[in-house]
C-alpha cells in the first residue's frame, strides 16, 4: 500500500489558502442527489398491515429526477456510491445499474464499498459500460485502465457556474470490501480534501462539493478541518437527513452536510446559494423528495430493469430446498448475537468440510431482511450469500481461536454509552456466527481495539468462556491443541480486522460458500431446514 508522510503533507496543505472569490460574486447551484442505490432499480416492495407498499427504486426515482430537471435545467445530478450490490452486480457487472443511472441523468458518482465487492477487474468491467464520471480522490490504482477511468474530480457546469465535485472513499474500504492489492488508499482525507479544493479553485471552480463515504462524525470533522468545501453529500449511515447540518470550519467557513438514505427511497434536493464565495444560509435549502409510484415511471429505465430482472429470474428460479420457518437475515440480527440463519450457514460449512469449527462473519450474510418460509431458490441463497466466496480451512491453536473470539466480541456495540469508533474497533460485520463452539461474552468487559491497518492496539476481555463440541459433548477449548476452522476466503485472509486468521495455516478450496450451503440444504430430509437457536452464543451485560 502507498504510504504518505501524512502529518507533513496535511500541515503543508492546510497552510495553503483557498483562492479568494471575486468580490460581489453570487452563484445559485441546484443539485439532485441520490444516495446508496444498492442495485435497487425496481421499487422496493414491503408488506405492512396486509398491504403492499412500493417505494424507492430508480424506475420511479428517474421519473422524479426528469421532472425536477425539466423545472430546473441547470440542476446537477450526483450519486454518492454503493450504486451496486448483491446478485445483480455479481451476475451482470454493472450493466443494468450504470446504464439506468446514466439514463436517469446522473453526471458523476462516487466509488463506494460495494463497487469493490468482487475485485478491481469486476469494477473495471462495470465502468466500461458507462460514460458517467467515476470519482475517488483518495484511491490510486496499479491498473492503468482503472487509473485513467477513475477521476479525482470533475468540473460540471450549472448555468454559468463552474462546480467542482470530488469524492472521498471510505477509510475503512479494505475492512468492508475486497479492493485487491492493486488498489491503494490514502486515509488522510483532510489533506486530500485541501488539495482537491486548491486544484478545483485553480481550475476555475466557484463552488466545491464533496461526495463522501465517511461516517457522520467523520464528515463533521472534515468540515471543521477544511476551508473551501461548500457541501459534503452522502456518507456511510444509509440514513437520510431531513434537515441539513451547517458546520463551521477554519476562518468562519461553513459547510453543509446532508444525506439522502438508501435504495432510492428519497432524492435529496439541494439549492446552494453562494455569495462572495461562501454559503448564504438564508438562500440555501435541502429537501427530501419521497420516491413512490406516484412519481411515474421512467420508460427507458423500466425497460432496462425489466429486461435484466427477467434474465436474472430465468437463471435463478430453480428450487434448492425449503425453509420451514422464516429466516432472519437482517444485518442487526446477524451482527449482534446468535442468529438462527448464521447457525445454519456455519453448520453447513462445518458439515461440508468436516472441520472442528466453522465461522461466518456477520458482514458476509446479506439481504438485510426476513426471508419467508417456503421454497428456496438459488436467487434467495445468492441474496443471502452474494459474495460467492471460496472456503478455506484454517488450522489454528486454541489460543488463537480465543483471540479471534475476543476480536469478534470487540465488534459488538455495548449500548448507548459504548463509544464505538470504526477506526479503532473491528467492524460490526466482523462479529462471527459459529458452529462447533459455545461461547459467552460480557459487554461489561472492554472491547479489543485494532487500527485501520489491522494492527492490534489492545486486547479486550469480553470473552468469558468457550467450549468446543467433541462428539456429542461440550468440552473446554484447549489452548495448545490445533483445531481446523472452515471460513470464507475473506475472513481467512484477516478481513474485517480479524488478523489472527492470517497467522494460521490455510488450505484453500475451490468450493464456494453458497455451494456448500446449497449442498447441505439438499442433503437434509425432504431438503428442509427449520431455523433455531441453541444457545451457542450468549451475551450478558454483567
Q: Judging from the principal axes of the Cα atoms, what is the shape?
A: globular
Instruction: Estimate the mean pLDDT confidence.
Output: 91
Structure summary, number of beta strands: 34
Straight-line N-to-C gap: 41 Å
* Number of alpha- plus pi-helical segments: 16
Largest sheet: 8 strands, mixed
Radius of gyration: 24 Å
Uncertain parts: 1-18
Structural class by secondary-structure content: alpha/beta
Please tell me about this protein's structure:
The chain is of the alpha/beta class and 542 residues long. It is built from 16 helices and 34 strands. The strands form 9 sheets. Strands 1, 4, 5, 6, 8, 16, 17 and 18 form an 8-stranded mixed sheet that branches. Strands 9-10-12-13-15-14 form a 6-stranded mixed sheet, with helices on one face. α2 packs antiparallel against α10, α4 runs antiparallel to α10 and α12 crosses α16.
Give the topology.
Blueprint: H1 6-14, E1 26-34, E2 44-48, E3 51-55, H2 58-71, E4 76-79, H3 86-92, H4 95-103, E5 108-110, H5 119-127, E6 133-135, E7 139-141, H6 144-149, E8 150-151, E9 153-158, E10 161-168, H7 173-176, E11 183-185, H8 189-202, E12 207-212, H9 216-225, E13 231-233, E14 245-248, E15 254-258, E16 266-275, E17 278-279, E18 285-290, H10 299-316, E19 319-323, E20 327-328, H11 331-334, H12 340-353, E21 357-361, E22 370-371, E23 374-377, H13 378-384, E24 390-397, H14 398-410, E25 432-435, E26 437-442, E27 449-450, E28 456-458, E29 463-470, E30 473-476, E31 482-488, H15 489-492, E32 505-512, H16 513-523, E33 528-529, E34 537-540
Parallel strand pairs: 1-4, 4-5, 5-6, 6-8, 10-12, 12-13, 13-15, 19-33, 21-31, 26-34
Antiparallel strand pairs: 1-16, 2-3, 7-11, 9-10, 14-15, 16-17, 16-18, 19-23, 20-22, 21-25, 24-31, 24-32, 26-29, 27-28, 29-30
Helix pairs in contact: 1-8, 2-10, 4-10, 12-16
